[in-house]
Fold RTA1-domain-containing protein.
Amino acid sequence: MSPSHSAGPDMHKISPYYGYIPSLSVTIIFTILFAFSTIIHLGQSIRYKLRYLLYTAVAAGLFEITGWAARLYSHYHPDKLGPYLVQTVTTINGPTPLVAAYFVILAEIIRRLGPCYSRLRPKLYAIVFVIADLVALSVQGVGGALAAIAAGNHKNPEKGGRIMLGGIVFQMLAITIYMGLAVEFVYRFWSNKPFKGRDDVPPSGRYTLDHSIKLMLVGSTLSSLMIYVRSVYRTIELVDGWGGRIIKNELYFDVMDGAMIVASMYCLNIFHPGRLLGPGGTPAKGVASLNLSADSLEKTKETV
């Protein structure tokens, strides 16, 4: 009697697309981890009324869940092109919305602590860097799709790979500039060196860098560094080539991409802007105290 079951992973030494068969245990673990973090982010965004996190952290989680679920499917069907295409596009684009969340968070911190210490106005961070993020998302998506389709058709995927590389390098440049501006802002705030000629100097001289904002800065720094490490890995991977040794190594991908992004997702869960900066529409403590001081001053003048 001949076997009637479909071909399983034990009948394939390697996938013609991955260069290996995605690990069953690893893909299950990452799918569950991303799903759990995404559910938490959904609940947190609703609880704290921070709608932008639906389009950033939650969207990033959905990308990653889809990508890792596709890799899980590929474990059982390593010779199928569809899941390979899906995981290529989603895992390359997954972290991009998450990066946008930190652009918005930095803008909010600057607005609260004092725009006079920042090279850019708070609104510009959201506008400039989110637009840059959307450009990177589009370029990476197009490049990933072209490369995956070419690889699936047994054609040279290097053209799509170069487009992906351009998108990742562009995103890495944006993150580098963002981190540089953030460091400059913290330095200027800490040393009380506002930009000359700015008319937005806080009335009291400076805001209070309280424990919550310090934690938010720590969380943003840790998460941004992990995303940055992942971007460096992806850059090296694509420079090495679509058929290179790095892209065909599952361990590199699991550690330098999957682990970095899942850790960054949970970092935002822990150091959450809703808990540390307050719900949407809630004024910062510094702003509230300044308004109170201003009101008290006016009442004192009236009394005098």
